[in-house]
Amino acid sequence: xxxxxxxKFELCLRLGDSALIIGHRLSExxxxxxxxxxxxxxxxxxxxxxxxxxxxxxxxxxxxxxxxTEDDMAYLRDVVLYRNTLITEQPNGDFAFTMTRQFFYxxxxxxxxxxxxxxxxxxxxxxxxxAVKEIDYHLRHSTEWMYRLGDGTTxxxxxxxxxxDELWMYTGDMFASDENYQLLVENNIGPAMxxxxxxxxxxVNEVLERATLKIPSATFMQSGSLKGFHxxxxxxxxxEMQHIxxxxxxxxx
Amino acid sequence: xxxxxxxQGILWEVFIQGNPGIPHKHAGSLHAPxxxxxLQAARDVYTRRSEGISIWVVPAANITASSPxxxxxxxxxxxxxxxxxxxxxxxxxxxxxx
Lengths: 253, 98
Fold this sequence. Notes:
The complex is a heterodimer of chains A (253) and B (98). Chain A has 253 residues and is an all-alpha fold. Helices cover 67% and strands 0% of the residues of chain A. Chain A has ten helices and no strands. By secondary structure, chain B is α+β, with helices and mostly antiparallel strands. Chain B has a domain of 64 residues: Phenylacetic acid degradation B (Ubiquitin-like (UB roll)). Classes of the chains: A mainly alpha (253), B alpha+beta (98). Chains A and B meet through helix 2 and helix 6 of A and strand 2 and helix 1 of B.
């Protein structure tokens, strides 16, 4: 792979892994959500994300050109090779925690994929155009929950504020940029992260304010996903997700 | 977890329109705390296989239903009035959804 291909490959992993991991996290709610209707809603969103990750990981495999498939990408890479942004791998916690995580990431994907529709890479453009309608709904859903949980009962408010406080330090990693990514920006393949961060901040401020939630004053941000540095949770997730394909290679059903 | 009525929100009836121009049809019911969440839940529960292009949600409590005891006076009188059925007309070709 030349420099530009490497950069594209890394972006596909970053977006595709994030979609796969948050999709997997949401799928963990299947059969456990607080109400039946939300159980179906969460698994719908999970499926949207897994579908999105399939497109991106297939494209990554194609760029890599080593004869690998989307399944190889998903099931046969170890933690350090995963590029998902840190917030997506955080465990579900309670419903407020899951929804807050979802809202933060949905707001990112909402602005990011909208911009990605202008990508000069036609495959990424196509993937983004397909994804934006789904993402539109995801954000609407998690936003409405933020209002209801934040501005709900004393307990729901407290749980949601705790989630905001705990998750805040993982939000910075979503906008991380490096030499690879800068190359994509210069070639009009990926949108500048500063712009996405600005739009994201406005939206998040607006929603949290209406939800009577406070943005933490602490500014320390975790980072590292671009280099494959993850929180301790991702390894356990992958162990569960990859267990079958690794134990029974090439099995079909 | 306790499953008290209130913990799931109120009951909503869901009506889905399958295609332009045809009536909304009762699809089922669900629980939700308010109208917006009912609409979203209806979208997730009842249109995930492309069943609809429009959704109505109505609080079940706002629906006034006839009671079974009324069936005699409400419905039986029409049983012996076949002339009310439009069987004496020809349906023009190409008319759908009748």
